[in-house]
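Q: How would the structure tokens look for this protein?
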Amino acid sequence: MIKGDVAGRIGRMAGDSGPERVLVAASFVNRVGNGLFNAASALYFTLVVGLPAVQVGAALTIAGVIGLCAGIPGGHLADRRGARTVMMLALAVQAVSMAALVLVESWAALTIIATADQIAAAAGGAAWGALVVRVGGERPALFRAKLRTFVNLGVVLGTVGAGLALAAGTRGAYVTLILGNAASFALCAVLLLLLPRYPVLAAPPRRRRWLVFADRPFLAFTAFYGAMGLQYPVVSLLLPIWISEHTEAPRWTVAALFAVNSLFCVLMQTRIGSRIETPHDGGLAFRTAGLLFLVSCPMMALAAYTPVWAAAGLVLAAIFVHSLGEVWESSAAFALGFGLAPDHAQGQYQGVFGLGFSAGQALAPAILTTVVLGLGTTGWLLLAVFFAALGAVGPSLARWGMRTRPQPGVTAEAMG
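A: Here is the predicted structure in token form.
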């Protein structure tokens, strides 16, 4: 009886319908695999395969740049041929390409295989966004928040598993992690077979084919969200370097900040995100996120001027505030990124949205390590003001977006 109650509670947490639970399970499995691979990939190619770090970085950069171009056509294909079909094909390609990585012995092979993987990832990501809209039902914000909760939990579990394998340090351990990620793609594709075959939504008459490129409010939000995305490498890249080079905080603080960030997002995403449903809510949430980053960044900078244990406490407190900002920011992205997109074109809209975010992530390491680290404390303060300024635009963007949505019963050739 107790086991049944627990299973029922977990089922309710995962979704309110069968399709919701299927998509949550598929995403969770996929992210566990991602956690396994991401923690081990660079070390495998440098330490086990023996490729120079510069070559590994170049291969992954080339693959990432080429992959960026696949999101928009992949999303459009999902709109016209079905999001589930496109996503399953993308997952199948990723399963094969990931398994093929264990055969890599040269830079050229790594570049080719990684490029195939990134093209499939970009197309699949856009299709995933369109599929989330179809599955979300009447409470899309609540479903998306639950989905992100389980996604974060999957990454945490995968990373823990990777840590155990990496402790062994053998080729077999690394290969197991890579093949585990390949298996997660295959299992994710199989789980999607349990979803209904959602019919393709017909585009309204007299609408241009690539509607998203005429939607200026959506493109503006995409640019602002891509810029706000610099906050993610603040935790994964900038702060660890700052801690090691400029503070007296013990090195275990770096591991602790990752744990606090991940667990806080798991615990708070549903509680906060389920209340942010409309584009209006999203605009306010984007502003709130900017204000929270305005607080967290100076706290991180001040850790360089405090004694050892005070520095550790200040960093962890800053991560708490920063993680709260991340939850508000991701909730804003759901409300505006999905809410401004017409149902029949969710794929192409999510393709553009993903392109904007990925472009920001590609530029982030260079910006953070040169400008922010180069200026020291001043760089942190400028970064804080930058985030707050981006967030302040959120409510205005939301109002602009809603004003330019077509009214029911009104057909327009394009949105301006």
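The longest helix spans residues 308-339.

Residues 204 and 410 are 10 Å apart (CA to CA).

Upvote if useful.
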